[in-house]
Write a structure and sequence with these properties.
Largest sheet: none
CATH class of the domain at 39-196 and 268-335: Mainly Alpha
Structural class: mainly alpha
CATH topology of the domain at 39-196 and 268-335: Hypothetical protein af1432
CATH superfamily of the domain at 39-196 and 268-335: Hypothetical protein af1432
Number of strands: 0
Distance between the termini: 71 Å
Radius of gyration: 21 Å
Number of helices: 16
Order of helices and strands: HHHHHHHHHHHHHHHH
Shape: flat
Length: about 325
C-alpha cells in the first residue's frame, strides 16, 4: 500500500461515520493521477497554500481600511483564524481536518481589495454582478495558474462557494467552516474595534455577555465549545439555542456599532469610487490587461465585464491604489 492509501485507511477506521472520507471524494473537474503520499483534500490544501491568490490576502482589508497599527487583522490573518477554529472543531468531532483546512484557506481567495466596500462597488457597477464567494470558486477553477485553475475536489469547491450564511455545504466539514467564518470575524472584528477605540467591553449588551462571556477570548472559547458539544454524535453542525441567539444578537450589535459605524467606515466611499473608476478604465482599455486575462476573453469567450472584474477584484489594496495613482494622479516633471 502507498502512504496515501494507508492514510485513507486510517481515516476510514478513525474518523466519525459522518465525516467526508478522502477515498470517497466526488472527484475533480478534470481527472488526474492520485498522489502516492497525500490524500485528495490534503493535496487541495497544499495547492491553495501555494497559490498567488492566497499570498495576496496579506494586503487586503478585513474591516478597517489601511489602519495605523501592526496588530489589526488583514484578510490573510482572518483566513488563518477561520482555519484554526475549523480545525479545532473538526478534530474534536473526528471530522476530516484536511478538508476543513482546505475550505477555510480557500474561502476568501476571490475577495476584493478594501473588504466588502470593494465587493459592493463591483457588484453595483458590473452588469453581471459580483459575489466574493462565487469569485473564490472562479479563482480556483479558472484564474489561478495562468488560466489553468487548481482543479480542486468538489467537496472543497462546494465548501468555498457556500461559506456564507445564504449557503449550505453538503459536507459537515463545509458546515464547520461556515460557522468558523462567523465566529472568527465576530471575534476579531470586535477585538480590532476595541483596539481602535470604537468599542469597549462594557458596551456589549449584558444579555449577550451573560450567555457567552465578558471578554473576546471568553466568547471565542464559548462559541467553539458549544458548537462541539451541540454537534457531537450528530449528522449536522449546530449550536445550542441560547448560544445561537447570542451569536445572532452579537452579530446585529456589530453591524450597528462597527460595520455601519460612520467613523470606522469614513473612507469606504473613497474606496468604492476608486474601484468603480478602475473598472470603467479597464473596461474601456481592455488591451491593458495582462495576457492571461485577455486569453480568457479571446480563447474561451469570457465576457469583457467578467474579465475586468477578475482583474480589478484580484488586486490588493496597495496595488489598486498604485494603479489609480498611475492612471489619474499627475507626476512631477523631470527634465
Amino acid at each position: 500500500m502507498t502512504i496515501r492509501e494507508n492514510l485513507e485507511q486510517w481515516e476510514k477506521e478513525y474518523l466519525s461515520p459522518y465525516a467526508a472520507l478522502s477515498m470517497n471524494s466526488k472527484g475533480r473537474l478534470k481527472e488526474e493521477e492520485p498522489c502516492d503520499i497525500r490524500p485528495v483534500f490534503q493535496r487541495d490544501r497544499d495547492r491553495i497554500l501555494h497559490s498567488k491568490s492566497f499570498r495576496r490576502l496579506k494586503d487586503k482589508t478585513q474591516v478597517f481600511l489601511t489602519p495605523e497599527g501592526d496588530h489589526y487583522r488583514t484578510r490573510l490573518t482572518h483566513t488563518l483564524e477561520v482555519s484554526q477554529n475549523a480545525r479545532t472543531i473538526a478534530k474534536s468531532l473526528r471530522l476530516n481536518e484536511d478538508l476543513v483546512e482546505a475550505i477555510a484557506l480557500g474561502h476568501d481567495l476571490g475577495h476584493t481589495p478594501f473588504g466588502h466596500a470593494g465587493e459592493r462597488a463591483l457588484d453595483r457597477i458590473c452588469p453581471l454582478g459580483f459575489s466574493h464567494s462565487e469569485q473564490s470558486v472562479r479563482t480556483v477553477d479558472v484564474l489561478e495558474k495562468g488560466g489553468q485553475g487548481l482543479n480542486l475536489t468538489m467537496e472543497v469547491r462546494d465548501g468555498i462557494r457556500n461559506h456564507q450564511t445564504k449557503g449550505m455545504p453538503f459536507t459537515l466539514e463545509g458546515k464547520v467552516v461556515r460557522f468558523s467564518d462567523k465566529i472568527a470575524y465576530i471575534h476579531h472584528d470586535m477585538d480590532d474595534a476595541i483596539r481602535g477605540g470604537i468599542l469597549t467591553e462594557k458596551d456589549i449588551p449584558k444579555d449577550i455577555s451573560r450567555v457567552i462571556g465578558e471578554t473576546c477570548g471568553e466568547r471565542l472559547d464559548h462559541f467553539i465549545h458549544d458548537l462541539v458539544t451541540a454537534s457531537k454524535d450528530k449528522n449536522d453542525i449546530v449550536m445550542s439555542e441560547p448560544v445561537a441567539k447570542a451569536m445572532k444578537d452579537l452579530r446585529s450589535f456589530m453591524f450597528e456599532r462597527v460595520y455601519q459605524n460612520k467613523e470606522a467606515k469614513s473612507e469606504e466611499g473613497k474606496a468604492e469610487m476608486l474601484m468603480e473608476t478602475l473598472y470603467k478604465y479597464y473596461y474601456e482599455n481592455i488591451h491593458l490587461l495582462p495576457p492571461e486575462f485577455l486569453r480568457l476573453m479571446e480563447e474561451k469567450g469570457e465576457p469583457r465585464e467578467r474579465i475586468v472584474c477578475d482583474y480589478v477584484g484580484a488586486m490588493t489594496d496597495r496595488f489598486a491604489i498604485a494603479k489609480y495613482e498611475e492612471i489619474y494622479i499627475p507626476k512631477s516633471w523631470h527634465g
